[in-house]
Amino acid sequence: MVRTNPNLIKEIKKLGAFDITACYSCGECTAICPLSENNFELPRMMIRYSILGLEDKLLSSPQLWLCYYCGECSESCPRDADPGALMMAARRYAIIKYSLGGIARIFYSKVMSVVSLIILSIIAALGIYLFKKPLDLTKFNPFSLLSYEFIHTAGLVLAAYIAIVALLQGIKMYNCIKHSALEGNLSAGAKVKNLIKSFFIMLFGEVLAERRYLKCDRKNRYIAHMTVFWGFVLMFIATTLDYLKNSNILGLRESYEIIKAINIEIFGVLARIIGIIGGLIGIYGSIYFIYKRLVKDDVYSEYSHVSDWIFLILISLGILTGFLIDIFIYTNMPLLAYVMFAIHLIFVFDLIVTAPFTKFAHLGYRLIAVWFYEYQKLKLSK
Ligand code: SF4
Ligand code: SF4
Fold it and tell me: Which of 35, 39, 290, 376 has the fewest CB atoms inside 10 Å of its own CB, making it the most exposed?
């Protein structure tokens, strides 16, 4: 039996600016949407689910996550119903529903999201204050502020936290979409084959190139989106290399000849180059989106949810403080470099702890959705 939620459209409405009651189902938005296909009418299918209160259908639709909010449907809507904004708000709603205990709701409320960020920042600052060591003021050394053991343990705890929460929420989403995505009378072998094939289509098409986004007309937005994503990837690689260098490759150098032969300084040089490239392209993308949201010269940027602002501000400040650390190191101002390092760690902590519930969560859910969507397409093509 199909369960309905009569308040669905009202609840989604709280998470975005659209006027879907104005919709008279003309289909113009579906005709123009570059992602709409014969069997999957975007965004009209999601509009219908939302208006009819078909919450289970909405949450079990991989199609909800295909859209990057290019805004073409909103521009073409003769009733100014802003269907693109509905898609965005419905994804925020899905993030709340997939989250453990609905905890993501906190990060989509203006007051609660700001309060929770202040609390998280205080926790991070207190942690730094309580575990800080006497500073080496002759030159900047991150392990002079916090010991290697502390950073190593804190990193492991945060990585385990992200992995566990992402896994549990991913399973929750999978349980929602599996019936619609995996149903059908394929043999077990054909299912496995299609799942592997669709996984690689998702990996190379969506993760590496955001192929779907390319279908939209706004190439500047596509480039900015890619730069934010690849900026993060490169900065993550740089942080890992720097960590390996500073930790002497996790202390394995003494035990294995092959690791002893590696010139450890290369890790530091590579980390620097990759980090600077990642930081520059990441800051370009985030400032582009901040600028667009300020000037509001595009339909997609006319309305900004508090979660959009928090995400963009946190990543911009995280990258900028990273650059400032380098500037203070190169200008031989170790004390300022330590202060900036502490502030940088607070922003990074905030980003990591909130990641499974905010815009970062889009990435994980989108990948699962695209994987099963590609699976559905392979199944239908038989
Ligand atoms: S174009 Fe506007 S009015 Fe027409 S179906 Fe889409 S949202 Fe409704
Ligand atoms: S915002 Fe773009 S991709 Fe999303 S439903 Fe509208 S036209 Fe399609």
Answer: 39
Our answer on whether the CB atom of 41 is closer than 6 Å to any ligand 2 atom is no
pLDDT tens, residue by residue, 302-358: 888 999 999 999 999 999 999 999 999 999 999 999 999 999 999 999 999 999 999
Q: Tokens in use for 44?
A: 């009209």
Residue 35: name the closest of 57, 61, 65 by CA: 65
Q: State the sign of the Cα–Cα–Cα–Cα dihedral 1, 67, 366, 9.
A: negative
**Residue of 18, 28, 35 with the most ligand 2 atoms within 8 Å of its CB, for mutation:** 35
Would you say 350 and 156 are in contact if contact means Cβ atoms under 8 Å apart?
Answer: no
| Main-chain dihedrals φ then ψ at residue 53, nearest 5 degrees | 75, 25
160-194 pLDDT, tens digit per residue, is 999 999 999 999 999 988 877 777 677 788 888 88
Same domain, 237 and 261: yes
Ligand 2 atom closest to residue 36's alpha carbon, by position in its atom list: 8
Query: What global pTM score does this model have?
Result: 0.89
For the CA of 80, the nearest ligand: 1
113-172 pLDDT per residue, tens: 999 999 999 999 999 999 999 888 898 988 889 988 898 899 889 999 999 999 999 999
> How many CA within 13 A on the CB side of residue 254?
3
- Whether ligand 2 lies within 6 angstroms of the CB of 222 is answered as no
Residue closest via CA to ligand 1's atom 3 equals 23
Q: Which residues line ligand 1 (CB under 6 A)?
A: 23-29, 44, 47, 77, 79, 81, 83
Closest CA to 129 of 338, 354, 348, 313: 338
131 and 96 within one domain: no
Q: Would you say the CB of residue 84 lies under 6 angstroms from ligand 2?
A: yes
The residue segments making up the domain with residue 358 are: 111-381
Classify residue 1: in a domain, yes or no: no
**Residue 33: HSE in the Cβ half-sphere, 13 Å Cα cutoff:** 27
Q: Are residues 35 and 163 in the same domain?
A: no
Q: What angle do CA 275, 353, 306 make, to 5 degrees?
A: 95
